[in-house]
Amino acid sequence: MWLFAAANFSSLNIKIWSGEIACLINLIIYQERMMRNTISVFGLSLLIGCSTSKNIYQFSATTIDSEERSLSDYKGQVLLVVNVASECGLTPQYAELQQLHERFASQGFAVVGFPCNQFGGQEPGSAEEIKKFCTVNYGITFPLFNKIEVNGDSRHKLYDYLAGSDASFPGDISWNFEKFLIASSGEVIHRFEPSTSPIQQEVIEAIETALRTK
């Protein structure tokens, strides 16, 4: 009787113990699967995060000669992006921008100009007229693009990146000749007010620092 009961009890213990092991194994397998899924999702999110990290190379624009150009063509260069105008009190800055371009071009630097007519209607001309004005009056050789809008609902996507709510230096463009210094990585590293001369010491030093860290 006692032997029978003991045997039954042992058998019951073995069944319970076996059941617990099975549950434990199933739990381990479940946790492993969950971990793999978590790692996969995490890895995917990292991949997505990397692929959507923005810089100016994701944008394109129409040149002054009506050719579509990707800004990735400037990859690896330090850039000074400027919204320009031909009939502004700051228009003489064209000469200083050209000086900058010539001074640092051999080191991998370029000024990039985007004509804009949003400030006092001071860039009313056609692309051909703008190009002729810049060439004849200032000998401009740095890249010029076609006229764009830099503020408002029709703002070019580049300027959404430069000055939009998620920008490194957010806020609407205040006037002609506002300047953005772009690192060789394509990211914005400085923003200068329109009244800041392109050959002012703080601009020169910022460009030199960016070129040293290319």
List the topology elements:
Elements: H1 2-51, E1 60-62, E2 68-70, E3 78-84, H2 93-104, E4 109-115, H3 127-138, H4 157-163, E5 179-182, E6 188-192, H5 201-212
Parallel strand pairs: 3-4
Antiparallel strand pairs: 1-2, 3-5, 5-6
Please characterize this protein's 3D structure.
The model is unreliable at 1-10, 12-16 and 37-52 (pLDDT under 50). The chain has a four-stranded mixed β-sheet with strand order 4-3-5-6, with helices on one face. It has a two-stranded antiparallel sheet with strand order 1-2. Strand 5 (179-182) and strand 6 (188-192) form a beta hairpin. The protein is 43% helix and 14% strand. The chain has 214 residues and is an alpha+beta fold. The longest helix has 50 residues, at 2-51. The chain is built from five helices and six strands, in the order αβββαβααββα. The protein is globular. It folds into two domains: 1-53; 56-212, Glutaredoxin (3-Layer(aba) Sandwich).
The CATH superfamily of the largest domain is known as Glutaredoxin
Rg: 31 Å
Apparent shape: globular
Question: How many strands appear in the DSSP assignment?
Answer: 6
Number of helices: 5
Biggest β-sheet: count, sense, barrel?
4 strands, mixed
CATH level-1 class of the largest domain: Alpha Beta
Q: Give me the CATH fold name of the largest domain.
A: Glutaredoxin
List the strand order in the largest sheet.
Answer: 4-3-5-6
Return the string of H and E elements. HEEEHEHHEEH
Tell me the fraction of residues in β-strands, as a range: 5-15%
- What is the share of helical residues? 40-55%
Classification by helices and strands: alpha+beta
Average pLDDT number: 85
